[in-house]
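#lab-general

N.A. 3:47 PM
ok so I finally got the sequence cleaned up, no stray characters, all 189 residues accounted for. can someone with queue access submit it? mine expired

B.Y. 3:52 PM
send it over

N.A. 3:53 PM
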Amino acid sequence: MVDARIVQTTKALHGAIVELASKQPVSTITVADVTRAAGINRATFYSHATSPGGLLTDVITPELDQIRLDDQAARAASTEADGAAITQRGIERVVDHVVRYRDMYRLALPDALDASIHQALAGHFETSSLQHIERLPEGSLPEGLSVHIAAGWFAHALVGAIEAWLRGKRTSRRALLDTMTAMMPTWWQ
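B.Y. 4:20 PM
back already:
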């Protein structure tokens, strides 16, 4: 059983970093800022994280990982005909995640001095893409496709789409969802 104090401290840290990162770039957030906002001391911070960017990565990673796991489970339990619908649900969940953390992503993704969130999101998409592509039926991939290059392309294309959406004038959830869906190749299903 996990100590209730650890759970409470983790919750306070996560809430503090999301609130701070929704108002300023991650690179400008200090450990002192986080500890003050969370009501903890510096030693406690370092027992949970190595940096504000690392702490913020710890906040978003479990939700993104769950989206990947749910997608894999849905694909394992489905028929080939369900592929497009499963892809659509996965994209919707990613878009909902980005919308939930919109203010944080708007400041963190383009932060040239702390790329932790950019790297975490791209890393998540790359791992997810690689696992998905490797599970596709033999013969369904385009000729000459390099799996690891394709996974990297998808990862950075998705992060780029999210960044463009966050910078753009039209910021509706639907615009991001429709564009990401339209960009998926037919062989992806």
